[in-house]
Amino acid sequence: MTAYGNFPGSRPRRLRTTPAMRRMVAETRLDPANLILPAFVREGIDAPVAISAMPGVHQHTLDTLRKAAVEAVAAGVSGIMLFGVPDDANKDARGTAGTDPDGILQVALRAVREEVGDDLVVMSDLCLDEYTDHGHCGVLTADGRVDNDATLERYAEMAQVQADAGAHVVGPSGMMDGQVGVVRDALDQTGHEDVSILAYTAKYSSAFYGPFREAVGSSLTGDRKTYQQDPANARESLRELALDLEEGADMVMVKPAGPYLDILAKVADSVDVPVAAYQISGEYAMIEAAAEKGWIDRDKAILESLTGIRRAGAQMILTYWATEVAQWLGAGRAPGRG
Distance between CA atoms of 224 and 164, rounded to whole angstroms? Predict the structure, then answer.
């Protein structure tokens, strides 16, 4: 008999003996309702366009976007976050396609709401970067810097047109100072008091955004370090959090998710509003690329990464695997849970 036999209470392994036992005592659970699907819709295409850096993800047509929304509802996914990809000819310095009622994102919002109504929380990315010919998230000054206050005026316009088009939730993502308050005022003043704000509270200047820039056809040269957060800083995120809550954020987000689980945990421990995290394009691409090489088990790695984000405190996770994982969970066959 081993020495452990003298200590009958000292065997944690007893709670790991069978798949049913492990499921019963699991401290962290993923549910389809925790998941939100980011989706790209591109102007002027008649068939989906594959995104080379994100295998399995496409720029949608309006028709395929409708189908993706229906599929998400059937799987039990809670929300869909829409990103518009305009034709390059429609980009300009002020991103006017982003506030055109007939711009691609507004058309897509109306199409998805028409298709699924209130069965899916329809969210819209509220930022100028997809629509500007310079690729920055705001209006530029003569010397090429982002003008915070001029950008806020544009965000107020965007909030109104996105809400008019049917967004249940707007997600101001540009990291401008005061953006949540300005968006809240714009919504309230135009009769959209019921439209919620998901604040991109801690959005870091990350190397993992690369594939996303292909996904939205970004025109950016340079970087966004003057307005996105420095990866070296943690306390700064709590300052941003306090400001967003004071300005009226209904939900808050940390982006990226995986490299910033410490930030996510700090935010989740500090608030009593729902907390989201965005598993971004680079996180997605790393797992898909490693799995393609045969270096990791794809499905188990996906589930482990999402469980880690959930364990750190995210109530909602934006992930490109949302529908697929929700289907696993709904079928009771999530890989690696046994």
Answer: 29
Residue 113 · residue 72 · CB < 8 Å: no
Neighbouring-strand partners of residue 60: 41
Please give the Cα distance from 77 to 125 (Å, whole number). 18
Question: Which residues are identified as catalytic?
Answer: 203, 255
Peptide bond into 256 cis (omega under 30): yes
Q: Within 13 Å of residue 293, how many CA atoms lie on the same side as its CB?
A: 7
Q: Which two tokens stand for residue 304?
A: 């482990």
CA nearest to 309, candidates 320, 301, 317:
317
pLDDT in tens, 124-165: 999 888 888 776 777 788 887 888 888 899 999 999 999 999
Q: H helices within the chain, ranges in order? A: 19-25, 62-75, 104-116, 148-165, 179-189, 210-215, 235-247, 261-270, 281-292, 298-311, 322-331
Q: How many CB atoms lie within 10 A of CB 217?
A: 18
How many Å apart are CA 178 and CA 173, to the nearest integer? 12
- What one-character DSSP code corresponds to residue 133? S
136: closest CA among 149, 153, 158, 151?
151
Ramachandran angles phi, psi of 140, nearest 5°? -100, 150
Report phi then psi at 144, rounded to 5. 90, 10
Q: Within 83-136, where are the H helices?
A: 104-116
Could you tell me the pTM of the whole model?
0.91
Cα torsion angle, 258, 39, 209, 139, sign: negative
Question: Both tokens of residue 26?
Answer: 């699991």
* Buried b or exposed e, range 89-100, using 16+ CB within 10 angstroms: ebbeebbbbbbb
Is residue 288 a contact partner of residue 279, using CB atoms and an 8 Å limit? no
State pLDDT tens for residues 88-110: 788 887 888 889 999 999 999 99
Taking the alpha carbons at both ends of the chain, their separation in whole angstroms is 29
